[in-house]
Amino acid sequence: MSEPVALFRLAYASRSIIDPARVPVEIPRILESARRSNAAQDITGALLFGADGFVQVLEGPVAAVEQTFERIQCDPRHAGVAVLEAGPVGQRDFDGWSMAFAGRQPDLQVAALGPAPDILGLLQAALRRMAGHPVPARSSATMPPGRHPGRANGPGRVPPSPSAAAGG
Ligand SMILES: Cc1cc2nc3c(=O)[nH]c(=O)nc-3n(C[C@H](O)[C@H](O)[C@H](O)COP(=O)(O)O)c2cc1C
C-alpha cells in the first residue's frame, strides 16, 4: 500500500497592480492558466480578488505548491506578496477545485469560468484559522451537498484524484 502524499497549504495576500481597465481581461487569464496548471499538478485552492488585491490559498503536494508559488510570486500583475499561512494539513479545504474564485466585480464575466458556491465561507474559515480563531466543526468549510455546482466537472472543478478517493 503506497503512502498518501503529504498535503501542504499556503495562503498569501498581495496587492494587485493590474490597470483597472485591464482587470476584465487579466483576471480570467489568471484563472484560466491557474486552473490548467493546477489541475495537472494536483493543486487545489481559491483566489479572492477585491479592491485591495488578492488572497489566495494553494493546497497540494509540497513540491508542487512551492514551485507554483515561486512562479506566482514573480508575476508582474501583483506585488507585496505576504505569506499568511504555510504548513502541512490533513485535508484539503478546496477539494475538487483547481482554483475557485470569488470577486466583487459583476462585470468580470468570470461566472462563465465557474465560481464556487460557498467560496467566501471557505475563505473566511481559512482566514479565521490563520488568525487563530477556532472554526466550528467545518460547518463553513464544507460545501453543502445541495449547493455543489450543477456541472460537477465544469471549469475550476476537477474530479477527485484516485489516490484521494482511495486514501480518504
Ligand atoms: C494573483 C495570481 C494568482 C495566480 N495563481 C496561479 C495558480 O494558482 N497557479 C498557476 O499555475 N498560476 C497562477 N498564476 C499565474 C502565474 O503567476 C503565471 O503567470 C503562470 O503560471 C505562467 O504560466 P505559463 O508560463 O504557463 O504561461 C497566478 C497569478 C496571479 C497574479
Strands, helices and their partners?
Layout: E1 7-16, H1 23-41, E2 44-50, E3 53-61, H2 62-73, E4 78-89, E5 100-103, H3 119-130, H4 162-167
Parallel strand pairs: 2-5
Antiparallel strand pairs: 1-3, 1-4, 2-3
Bound molecules: flavin mononucleotide (FMN).
Q: Give the topology string: H per helix, E per strand.
A: EHEEHEEHH
Bound heterogens, unique: flavin mononucleotide
Q: Average pLDDT value?
A: 75
Supply the CATH class: Alpha Beta
Distance between the termini: 13 Å
CATH fold-level topology: Alpha-Beta Plaits
Count all strands and give the number.
5
Largest sheet: 5 strands, mixed
- The proportion of strand residues reads 25-35%
| Computed CA radius of gyration, to the nearest angstrom | 15 Å
The SS-based structural class is alpha+beta
- Side by side, the strands of the main sheet go 4-1-3-2-5
User: How many separate domains make up the residues?
Assistant: 1
Helix content: 25-40%
Helix run count: 4
Q: Pick out the low-confidence regions.
A: 106-113, 137-154, 159-168
Shape: globular
Which architecture would the CATH scheme give at its second level? 2-Layer Sandwich
Output the keywords.
alpha+beta; globular; disordered C terminus; 25% strand; 168 residues; Alpha-Beta Plaits; binds flavin mononucleotide
Describe this structure in words.
This protein is of the alpha+beta class. It has a single domain (7-148), classed as 2-Layer Sandwich (Alpha-Beta Plaits), CATH 3.30.70.100. It contains 4 helices and 5 strands; from the N terminus they run βαββαββαα. The protein has helices at 23-41, 62-73, 119-130, 162-167, and strands at 7-16, 44-50, 53-61, 78-89, 100-103. Strand 2 and strand 3 (53-61) form a beta hairpin. The radius of gyration is 15 Å and the shape is globular. The relative contact order is 0.21. It binds flavin mononucleotide. Flavin mononucleotide is lined by residues 30, 33-34, 37-38, 47, 54, 56, 58, 68, 71-72, 75, 77-78, 99.
